[in-house]
Amino acid sequence: MDQEKEAFGFYFSAHPVDRHRHIAVSHGARAYTALSELNIPDDGSRAGATMAVLVEDARYRTSARGKRFMMAQCSDASGQFMATCFDDQVSKDLEEAAKAGGCGLITVELDRKPGEDTPRVSIKRIQPFEGLANLARFQVVVTISDMTAFAGLASLLAEHRGARGEVRVRAQLPDGEVCILLGRDFLLDGELVEHIESLHGVAKVEMKTSETRLALVG
């Protein structure tokens, strides 16, 4: 992906945000091109939204009134756009994300002046996907058609621990289907799911919100 960005100026086959699609969807994130679907009056009113973006660049600017603000260049799979930020702490977070090439969920306010087709974006908050992934509860269910899949699956999952994701395996045995819980401490994302799908002996992979519930016991 980095080579594509360097050669073409944009991400061609995939975008860094794609690997976090499961988290973005669970938070109701909108693509940049979908912002125009929101009802944003041109009378100065504002609308709120959540987006999943890569922060490509962030630089401080000074307004005509002498107030410093952040101008961030962001992108998702649908396009690239500029956004402003007037909060000092959020501006620092954006600056750090840009230095690291980080992706995250941004909470934004949108407004539009008369005659403008696309809304202007003002960032109010950014949450790095790394932190959200460590807290998220997702479940991956792997259906296997060959027991040899366990070896490749174990090798892949060994490097993806330290979070709260749950992985289960379904296998068909002579006596019927069994479901095996491999653990509830995995760091799950779309890229890992794609790797699992490519393993020999894997018939199907499903990723969904975990149904696990924790209870307090007195």
Keywords:
218 residues, alpha+beta, five-stranded mixed barrel, four-stranded mixed β-sheet, elongated, disordered C terminus
> Cα distance, first to last residue?
51 Å
* Sequence stretches where pLDDT stays below 50 over 5 or more residues: 212-218
Strand order of the largest sheet: 1-2-3-5-4
Bin the helical content. 10-25%
Give me the number of helical elements: 6
Portion in strands: 35-45%
Spatial extent as radius of gyration: 21 Å
Structural class: alpha+beta
The tally of strands reads: 9
Order of helices and strands: HHEEEHEEHEHEEHE
Which sheet architecture does the biggest sheet show? Answer: 5 strands, mixed, barrel
Average pLDDT value?
85
Q: Give the CA-based shape.
A: elongated
Q: Could you characterize the architecture of this molecule?
A:
It contains six helices and nine strands. With 218 residues, it is of the alpha+beta class. The strands form two sheets. It has a five-stranded mixed β-barrel with strand order 1-2-3-5-4. A four-stranded mixed sheet has the order 8-7-6-9. The longest helix has 13 residues, at 88-100.
Summarize the structure.
With 218 residues, the protein is α+β, with helices and mostly antiparallel strands.
